[in-house]
Amino acid sequence: MHHEADGKAMNTTGDDPQPAAGRGGKPAEGRGELRIYLGSAAGAGKTFAMLCEGRRRQERGTDVVIAYVETHGRRHTAEQATGLEVIPRARLPYRDTFFEEMDLDAVLARRPEIALVDEFAHSNVPGSRNAKRWQDVEDLLEAGIDVISTVNIQHLESLNDVVEKITGVPQRETVPDAVVRAADQVELVDMTPEALRRRMAHGNIYPAEKIDAALTHYFRAGNLTALRELALLWLADKVDEGLQRYRTAHGIHDTWEARERVVVALTGGPEGDTLIRRAARVAARSSGGDLLALHVTKPDGLTGADPAALARQRRLTESLGGSYHQVVGDNVPDALLTFARAENATQLVLGASRRKWLTSLLTGPGVSMRTIRDSGDIDVHIVTHSLMGRGRGLPRVRGGLPLRRRLAGYALAVVLAPLLTMLLATLRHELNLTSDVLAFLVAVIAVALVGGFVPAVLEAVAGSLLLNFYFTPPLHKFTIAEANNALALGVFVAVGLVVSSVVDDAARRTKQAARASAESEMLVTTAGSVLRGQQALPAVLDRVREAFGMESVTLLERRTGQPGMPRSPAGGWSQVATSGSPPVGRPEDADVEVPVTDGLVLALHGRTLPATDRRVLGAFAAYAVVALEQQRLMAEAQAARPIAEADRMRTALLAAVSHDLRTPLASAKAAVTSLRSVDVQWAAEDHDELLATADESLDKLARLVDNLLDMSRLQAGALAVFPRPADLAEIVARSLDDLGPVGRTVIVDIPDDLPEVSVDPAILERVIANLTANALRYSPDQTPPVLTGSALSDRVELRVIDRGPGIPEPDRDRMFVPFQRLGDTDNTTGVGLGLALSRGLTEAMGGTLEPEDTPGGGLTMTLSLPAQPSQPAQPGTRVTDEHDTVMG
């Protein structure tokens, strides 16, 4: 338990990495190890835990430095940094001031054994070596330096939208999940919502003036509970990945009940929906339980698999949060249990048999009973349903003649020949040799139907010998006196062999047909995944791994001499995509390799495959190539979309400004031409009026061009924003000056004690000027617009209030669309960019712009901006807070 955090640290791996000896002696060779402290919210104690670990390592003789730590004014956290060497921060120029960042070059030059780096998801100031701090950490790790860092769950890229839905606050600083998952250790600094709220109330997280707002908004108990659950579940997934790697590396096949995993077996029958829902309820009883639906493509001998039903059941499984899998197996119980053990499943859900009692009596135990018999420590649930016992009365003849059938054939041959001989011997005086031969021929056919070719051949040979010894004169000798009897015995043996061969061939062809059907069904399902295009390549590789029982499947590509391609560390081969572990780095390291093109190879690790499986594998390889091309085409289309948007924007600009650019140009041109005319002598008043007209027209033209350029930059995502602390009242004053002489009154009511805002002053001036000009345009002459300011939590709000006609609520979204002028009937009042540009510029600074009704009539534009943290900063010091985006 960390004292400052009142929380518990939960480690996902084993003991700490062993430090190298000696100050500054971290070897250059080898990659450093990364340890990350993960928290569910601000104030959980991540930085405190990181500093405690740094002090503990230092006491053991390890060379530890603070590369970058933010204490956020918390006394207990600052105390833990005492005694640790601090690398001075780099001061970088940024918009006429200086900001502080981690000095990556200084840390690399110092080369400690361990570097403490706070705020893993932080965005660096433009001009830094890397855009993100986690990229700085990568450089430290590549240099062989161990790093201990911190991150909050809301900064993980995959959870960004989920956190925004829970808290209502978007997170601008994110880090890819793969980067955090790749860490050698991830330790959760956990705290209950109640304890975290108590810390907030005691002033251990935010200053006193922010406590009430924080407890009311972001730090509500429900929000903190949801964030804590997200952190626990995310960490549980990472722990599970490590567990699976350990089990694979050590060849462990027994079930470890670390987490409930429920496998539901589907046959494609109508009872599948019932089984899936029942299995989902079983998985839901354990928090974090997994649901896996499995279909073995080998038919169960009673009903065929309906592709439409399987597709519907797959969608149902995925809608319940589960995953769908498909494997090929001759023995359904073995395939089910092999898959369940490979996935470390704890429970298996099967449907009660649809076979009738006669079928069960003739064919022996069904799939469910054989599965229960061999399940071991996996719990098996047999779920009743309305269709049990209503299958076909007799089984279809299945091909392949499994071992049980062949053994039964041998047993029947051994028993049937002596019994038939004894029976025919008692009827010697009533039957002749022809009847005896036909009786033995029936026995041969019966053995062939039960056991196949070899037992039938043995039965035919034994029958011919018995007929010769007991029923062909001379009796009890292996000689034949009459040629007719010899011919009868020869025909008997020939017919027996032919019948046995036909029966065995039919069984083999039935088996081949069943396999071909299973293969085609699997290929059709995979083709559907490719056509749908969503995660098509991973779906194909997952299907190959599951269908052929491989440990890993990797698509390798040779990328030599191609500019812009990633480095290929394994002999010129790079991994395009992989499923399972461990991935294969080179084709020669694979158990099975399938060349796809000159530069692509599908490499499988796990076992060798027969030729028949390689044929199907070639089809899967072709699917993988199609999926790869589809994935790359989608990436190219995604990259081309901004270009297309820019083209559409240019077209709209040209169509919209054809008149608006011409009008001020024409006015300025006419005024200048008149002034230069030598034919007219202008009076002083007329001369000044013409100059004023030219000046006003050129000002309009400049503002129009500025708006157009800024809108283009916003659309292209290339607008540079440089936030810094600024006084809102001063910005408002400069904005009104920029409007020039408007001949109208604007009332400004901004409190003197209003906190500073963290904005780009030049951009905010443009926004306020646009909003004020819009309010002046629609306000009645006797009711001037009003600008008021107020502070709320960590936000500052500026309201621009007018008493004009207002805007109906259904039209408020359209008012922010470029080139829209609600209520305008001509093209002389501008291209309609003011409000669209104002919202875009505001959001670029981290603010919001929303319209509201003015009480009594009119429109109020509410401009919400991030407030500058109240803690004083030294000149040139960048004041940051890793939680500046979490206050709602």
Please supply descriptive tags for the structure shown above.
25 strands, elongated, five-stranded parallel β-sheet, 888 residues, alpha/beta
Average of pLDDT? 75
Summarize the amount of helix as a percent range. Answer: 40-55%
Shape: elongated
Rg, rounded, reads 40 Å
The total of beta strands comes to 25
Strand order of the largest sheet: 1-9-2-8-7-3-4
Set down the secondary structure blueprint.
Elements lengths: L7 E4 L22 E6 L6 H14 L4 E5 L6 H6 L4 E2 L3 E4 L4 E4 L2 H7 L3 E4 L15 H10 L3 E7 L7 H8 L9 H5 L3 E6 L2 H9 L6 H9 L4 H29 L11 E6 L5 H13 L5 E7 L10 H13 L3 E5 L4 H11 L4 E5 L5 H7 L3 H8 L4 E5 L19 H24 L6 H19 L1 H19 L11 H50 L3 H13 L3 E7 L14 E8 L11 E4 L4 E6 L5 H50 L1 H15 L7 H33 L7 E3 L1 H12 L7 E3 L7 E3 L1 H18 L7 E7 L2 E7 L32 H11 L3 E6 L5 E8 L22
Entry summary:
The protein has 888 residues and is an alpha/beta fold. It is built from 25 helices and 25 strands.
Outline the structure in words.
With 888 residues, this protein is of the alpha/beta class. It has 25 helices and 25 strands. Strands 1-9-2-8-7-3-4 form a 7-stranded mixed β-sheet, sandwiched between helices. A 5-stranded parallel β-sheet has the order 12-11-10-13-14, with helices on both faces. β24 and β25 (859-866) form a beta hairpin. α17 (453-471) runs antiparallel to α18. The two termini are 29 Å apart. The model is unreliable at 1-28, 299-303, 391-400, 561-570, 819-832 and 872-888 (pLDDT under 50).
